[in-house]
Amino acid sequence: MNAIFKRTSVRKYAKKNVNKKQIEKLLRAGMAAPSAVNQQPWEFIVVTDKDLREKIGKTSPFTKQAAKAPLSIVLLMRTDVRLVEMAPQDMGACAENILLEATKLGLGAVWQGVYAHQERMGYLTELFGLDESVVPFAIISIGYPKGGKLPKQQDRFDESRIYRNGYEAAPAKEAEDLPEEVPAEDAPAEEAPAADAPTEEAPAAETQEEATVADAQEEVSAEDEPADEAPADAQEEEAVVGWRSGTAAGLKN
Length: 253
Ligand SMILES: Cc1cc2nc3c(=O)[nH]c(=O)nc-3n(C[C@H](O)[C@H](O)[C@H](O)COP(=O)(O)O)c2cc1C
Fold this sequence. Notes:
The protein is of the alpha+beta class. It has one domain (2-178, 198-227): NADH Oxidase (3-Layer(aba) Sandwich). The protein contains eight helices and four strands; from the N terminus they run H-H-E-H-E-H-E-H-E-H-H-H. It has helices spanning 2-6, 20-31, 50-56, 87-104, 118-128, 173-177, 204-215, 234-245, and strands at 42-47, 71-78, 108-113, 134-143. A four-stranded antiparallel β-sheet has the order 1-2-4-3, with helices on both faces. The longest helix has 18 residues, at 87-104. Residues 8-9, 11, 60, 62-63, 110-113, 193, 240, 243-244 line the site of flavin mononucleotide.
């Protein structure tokens, strides 16, 4: 499946809306995910309203792009399911399916973590007036990528991560060398992703073929409004860079 190897996080969007048919496809893809005992713990809040977009952009220092994306989908996880301990895994599969469908449609998307940060979950619970039957799981912001193309995905294949017919623990030299207490400023950030290698542009032909399919879809409905496309301010850049390197001062919870 090509979308797996084309998907990258997209945090800047063109001034073009995602149409209703595309939104349905994204939600269908999410709901096609596997889940424990087929419990399907997901629910979705589709956000296109400008005020609401700005509000969900304030969920954390790393969700600012949600204010500018023409579409965000807030994924909710039901708590009244049979195997509640499996529900976060079900939700992860659901989220990834949405990202892959977005890629297939020529859209760019980014998964923004909410669960299980109490502060972020509390913020969205209050914003949407959720009751105890659901918890906010993630925000996926989606739009046409600014510049028209998805950045090229890094090749992360790493033979050293693979063990065959057994597991041999990696030498624990880093653990032995660690001081007894890691100073707070050096402590690894809770959700720090690996630093990204420089990206190249995706091959135009492949990406545009999919974008053309997406373009051919039904045009934007009247109630949809164009996304803001103000250039990212310095603060926003800092938050994204901070997110990607796990060093943002705002990463507290
Ligand atoms: C659970 C989870 C939470 C994430 N939260 C955020 C977030 O809050 N803000 C953000 O900009 N990106 C977020 N990301 C996206 C990651 O930063 C991104 O997937 C990672 O850097 C790898 O880059 P790639 O998606 O382009 O391959 C999150 C991804 C996952 C899986």
